[in-house]
Structures are given as C-alpha cells and as structure tokens.
Specification:
Layout: H1 3-11, H2 16-30, E1 33-36, E2 38-43, H3 69-81, E3 86-91, H4 100-114, E4 117-121, H5 127-136, E5 140-142, H6 150-156, H7 167-177, E6 181-188, H8 195-208, E7 212-217, H9 225-228, H10 239-252, H11 262-267, H12 272-277, E8 283-284, H13 291-294, H14 304-307, H15 314-323, E9 327-329
Parallel strand pairs: 1-8, 1-9, 2-3, 3-4, 4-5, 5-6, 6-7
Length: about 325
Amino acid sequence: MTRQEIRTILTAPSADALFKEAQAVRLQTKGTGVFLRGLIELSSICLRDCLYCGMRHSNANVRRYALTDDEIVACAALAQTLHFGTVVLQAGENERLWTRERVAHLIHRIKVETGQRVTLSLGERSEADTAAWREAGADRYLLRFETTDRALFAHIHPGAPTTGDHPRIAQLRRMKAQGYEIGSGIMLGIPGQTLDSLIEDLLTFQALQLDMVGLGPYLRHPETPLGQGDQDSEVPVSVDFTCRCYAVARLLLPSANIPSTTALSSLDPEAGRIRGLSSGANVFMPNLTPAYYREGYQIYPGKICVVAPQADSLSALHDTLHSLGLHHIEG
C-alpha cells in the first residue's frame, strides 16, 4: 500500500468499503475469536514529564499509588480465573520503583502461580533490563513510539533527542532480536501532527513487522501543557478516523493483534468498541486494576473504566462479542 493510497483511504468521504475489507482480512487471519487480555496498572508514580500525560511528574493533582507485588499477582490470578491467558503489566515510567530485579521476580511469580503469559509496558528501558525480563519469562513488550516525527516527539517528550535513531523504535528492534513479540502504536490527533507524518507512522508499523498495534485518539488532559495549548492538528480526533487507521493497520499487517482501545470507548461508550471490532481490531483489554486505584491512573480524563465501569465490565464485553457473532478465546 502506497502513501497516496493510504492518504486517499484516510480522507475519502466514506470508509464503508475499507471497513468491510479490513473485517474480511481479520476474519481470514484471526477467525471469529477475540482475545481478552487483563490490564494491570501497576503504578501512577512516573518520573517523566511528557506534555500530554495526566500522570506527568509535574502534575501535583494526581493521586499517586503503587500496587504491591501480592496485589499484582492477585490480579493475575483473577485473569487466570477469567480464562484470559495474558496479563499486561503497565506503569508510569519509573526505573527506581520497577527495578530489573523486582520486575523479573514478578514475572516469575505470575508464570509459576497463575500460568498467565506476561506482556510488559514499562516504557523506555535498557537492553540489560529487557534481556533479564525476557529470560525471566516475559512474552511481549508494548512501547508506543507515538510519532515518527522527531521534532514532534522531542516536543512532547522533554529531553528526547532530535537526531540519531528514534529511541523507542531502536528499543523495539532490540527487543524483537531478544525474542519478544513486540507491540507499538501512536496517538491520533496530537497537536502539531500532520497527515504525512501519520502515514509514515502507519508504514513504520509494517516496516517493524509488529505483532501488536495500538492506536488511539489523543484525548487532552486539562492539567497538562499540551492540553492547555493550541489543539490544531491535521489528524482528526474521532471514532471514524481511529477506525480507519485500525483498518489500514489490519491491511498492512494482516496477522497482527489490534486492540479496540479504552480511549475509543471513552469517545463513544455505546458503539466505540463495536466500531473498533468492525474495522479490524481483535483484542479487548479489560482493566483488572483494583477499583480503588483506577482514578489515579489517568493519562487522559474520562476513562470509561473509571467514569462508567459497568460499560467496561466483562459482561458488557461478552455482550458486544455475541452481538457481532464473535467469541472470547484465551491467549
């Protein structure tokens, strides 16, 4: 698929044909099964100051928390009971809290005590860290590169280099060589984002041969610099445009796992996830973080698992699957 073909698809008056094609490819490569993978938000204590994130270090209004190891393993045990097959350990970037040794021990415990596969999403880490976690049994790593536009990446990630290898893309390549299944993704509609850079992002998914693709609309947080400034972007923040990008990702990477994200459901609680599955997605990530802590983990406000937990319940997810002739599979 060429850049011009992608541009035409993304800007066409209607995407009905695109969605049908992407759904047909998903059914051909993934069948009617949808993976449910348990998300565990380990901690909202972050050392970074990313301009878009509500958990940024400088935001004094965040309710900070950190789960204990026993709480984390209990969440993984719940995932086992629910027949998920995989847990996703996600946290604000904090190498002091989530040390190489602690994470390796957690991976070992989860594997031994629950049998769950382990996906990590702990941000930018050293080659030695990810090697140790792979040796401990980690299966997958999620690291969004956010944008291939180096100037924009450096703007929203203070201190990031503007020249040389993209730090996150370099880490993804290292982890692929270490034997991980790798996942990455982008935000859609970041202030300053261009359609050309977005198209380059989508083609980078293909170049990296990602195993997982995470796409979500940028939802601004009012307590962040980016949320208070100019919101101009060539890339729309909408369910329709996000689904168009799901569909393009499915056509570029027919066998990849693509989650229908929480942010999409936050934009449209009733139809968002249905639209996602109908345009190429094949994964849901129910939030297994204990309810007491969830309010503290808000990259953006209005997360559906916080403001309307019943809409993000396992029962609601199964109802959605059944309505589309799909079913939950373990993996």
